[in-house]
Each structure stands twice: as structure tokens, then as C-alpha cells.
Amino acid sequence: MAVVCMVVLGGLVLMMLCICSALLRWNEVKYRKKGLPPGTMGWPVFGETTEFLKQGPNFMKTQRARHGSFFKTHILGCPTVVSMDPDLNRYILMNESKGLVPGYPKSMLDILGKCNIAAVHGSTHKHMRGALLALISPTMIRDQLLPKIDDFMRTHLTSWDNKIINIQDKTKEMALLSSLKQIAGIESMPISQEFMTEFFKLVLGTLSLPIDLPGTNYRRALQARKNVVNMLRQLVEERRGSKESIPDMLGLLMKDDDNNYKLTDEEIIDQIITLLYSGYETVSTTSMMAIKYLHDHPAVLQELRKEHLRIREKKRPEDPIDLNDLKSMKFTRAVIFETSRLATIVNGVLRKTTHDMEINGFVIPKGWRIYVYTREINYDPFLYQDPLAFKPLRWMDKSLEYKKYFFLFGGGTRQCPGKELGIAEISTFIHYFVTQYRWEEVGGDKLMRFPRVEAPNGLHIRVSAY
Fold it and tell me: What secondary structure, in 3-state letters, does the chain show?
């Protein structure tokens, strides 16, 4: 009987292997069209998403070694061409008008909203970008946003003395609640805690397979989006009902001006979610990793602290950081740039073809995604001397920020419009942290670098007064 069971089981295993092999072959044949770049497509529906998310940079390096720096794959529910060539990446980012429009995967579009600025193109993108740039102009940062950021950071960093804190959690809270304060002044209202819980679920689902099944990050994120949208819609309706004109981000988005493009409520809500998402990811992670790198490089920390103590010496304790102070934080800006480069907060950006088009000698079908993968540029020894070392001084040469391969904040017409606002937030956080506290790591917590930079078990530090 046991022998019969073993034979049957062996037969089933062999049959499953044959089916799997046939599915893989079928999927490869399906995409074996003349003119496509080399590469592999993996499983039907799932593609190579699992390998991509698990292996990250190693997956990309392996594929490049096999197929070159321009290859096809199937990730996050989309047939995709990956470009790892710096010159080609620059061309793709600079030529949206030729049919290379934003191409974020279904999971991200469903969760962030189909009206968010990263999803639209043409005249709609022009109008929305104009509306968002008005929210984060130098004048807005100086007069409206920086005072709110300063006030928030002072409060957020109180009572940390003589405590062990998870700096990952604290920077996540900081990034989201600071943005809520800037957008609509609600960081201390009861809605903020409920909103934060739902928003964190939303973020987790943006890099996932769009499979709507119970228990998946995608399903949880879709539900979280519904809850977030309901809270924001209530906020918009309350603001509109009050007839009060408040010059914050929400007020400017809702402004009824005949001379400008008027956003619908759906567009307003999607832009708020996009503002929160983009600021949250970059500000929280860069802040956490800056604390990590400063801890590991005491000489850099000493130089940074000198810069901030010089600013503090000219002020009374209650005096806030102003725009001139920010401009004087040249070494701090260098630390932020070097943190972004070495940690690689953003791995790349996605574009989509609006028609069949030839790129790099290959034909890319209409509707395919192109993943402009910029991660490896950050570690290119021809661009950055000693690229794996944390050396902020390299950025004191301002020309480095304007090199043609500088993609830390995107490129082309889609360069991150919130770059300077994000730098202002991180700089203000660093200012109050390093002038008030010293710290040491406890526990040697593990860091993951892909698909996002995070500490799975937190990053714990013991804080004491400086």
C-alpha cells in the first residue's frame, strides 16, 4: 500500500512539474514577438514579481548579466522593459511628449487614485503640476510651511530624553503628521490617529500584486484607501461648509479662481493622498537612514552638529528656523543627498508607451511599462568616487547636483516638485535632534534595502540629552 502511495505521489509531483514547465514555456512563447528585447517573463499573471520583490537588486543584476542593460520581464502585473543604461534612462525621462508617459502599475494607480499627478499626462498634468507647485513655492515654504514644520518638529521631539525609541516609527509618524499639519492643520485632531493607521496600510499595498483576495496587502490597501478617502471627503466638505478661507494647502487646492484650472473634489483628494504618500516615503526613510549613518560616522556627525550649533547660538531658545537658516545648512544638505544616494530611497520610475515605439533598437508594444531603474547609477565608480562609502563632502561641490545622471529626485518634466520642501522638513528635524540629543543604537537591528528601505523589526536607539 505504501509503495502504491509513493508511486501515486511521485506521479502527481511529476505531473505538476510538467504543468509548471508547460506554463512557463507558454508564457515565454506568448511574449516571443519579433523586435522585443531579450529577457524572461516568468509565470502567467504573476510573472517574475516574486523573484523581483525577494531578490531586488540581485534579480536586476542577474537579468542584466544574462540579457544586457535593456531587457523584458513581467513584474507587478505588467509586461515591463527594464532600462539600466544611464544615457537611455535620461532619454526616456526627457521625452514624455514622444509617448513615454507615467506608467505606474495597477496596484499603485488603484491605491493612490487615477487622478494623482503621477498618473496623468498632457494638459491635465500641466494644470495639476501648476496647482501643486503653487502649494510648495519658495514663498509658501517661507511664509506658511516652514513655520508649521518648525512648530511641529519642536513638539514631536520633546520627551525623548533617557528613552529607547524606535526611530523608524518616530520618523514615520513625523513625516505623515507634519504633512497633515501643512495640508490642513489636523495633526493633533482625533482624525489624525485613525488616519495614520489607515494610511500605513495604504502604503504597504502600493508595491504588491493587484490580486484582490482576503489577507493580501492589496485588498487591505484598497479598503484603507476607501477609509482615507471618506475622511478626506469629510474634511473637504467641512472646509467648504465653513466658508472660511484658510491659506493652507487644502485651501489653495479648493480655491475657486476663474483664471485657473479648477480641481474636482476627486482630484483634490487624490492630490492630497499623493502629497502625503510621496512626502511620507522619502522624508521618513531619509530621516531614519540619516540618523543611522550619522551614528556610524562620528566625524560626520561632529561636523554636522557644529553647523547647527552655530545657527542656534544666534537665536533665543524660542526662535524658529527660518529660510536663511535653511540656506546656511550646506553640510546638512550634503548629508541628505548622500543618505539618499547610498540608501537608495527611490530605485527608479515607471513609464508607459502610448503606441508601439522603437527604443534602443527594439520595438516596445503599446501599453508596456518601462522601468527606468536608476539604483545602480548611485554606485557607479565612474560617477561617484568610492561609491559605497558615506562621504557627504562630495556634495559640497554644487555642480554634482546638476550632472546629467543626477536622478535622486527623478528627471525630466517629472522631477519631484516637492524636493525643496522635503529637504526643509528633514533639515529641520535634524536641527532639533542633533542640538538636543545624542544617541546610540541598541539591538543591532536588521535593515532591508529592497523593495523599500526599512528595518523589519524597527531601528532602536537610546536617546540622552546633549
Answer: CHHHHHHHHHHHHHHHHHHHHHHHHHHHHHCCCCCCCCECCCECCCECHHHHHHHCHHHHHHHHHHHCCEEEEEECCEEEEEECCHHHHHHHHHCHHHCEEECCCHHHHHHHCCCCCCCCCHHHHHHHHHHHHHHCCHHHHHHHHHHHHHHHHHHHCCCCCCEEEEHHHHHHHHHHHHHHHHHHCCCCCHHHHHHHHHHHHHHHHCCCCCCCCCCCHHHHHHHHHHHHHHHHHHHHHHHHHHCCCCCCHHHHHHCCCCCCCCCCHHHHHHHHHHHHHHHHHHHHHHHHHHHHHHHHCHHHHHHHHHHHHHHHHCCCCCCCCCHHHHHHCHHHHHHHHHHHHHHCCCCEEEEEECCCEEECCEEECCCCEEEEECHHHHHCCCCCCCCCCCCHHHHHCHHHHHCCCCCECECHHHCCCCHHHHHHHHHHHHHHHHHHEEEEECCCCCCECCCCCECCCCCEEEEEEC
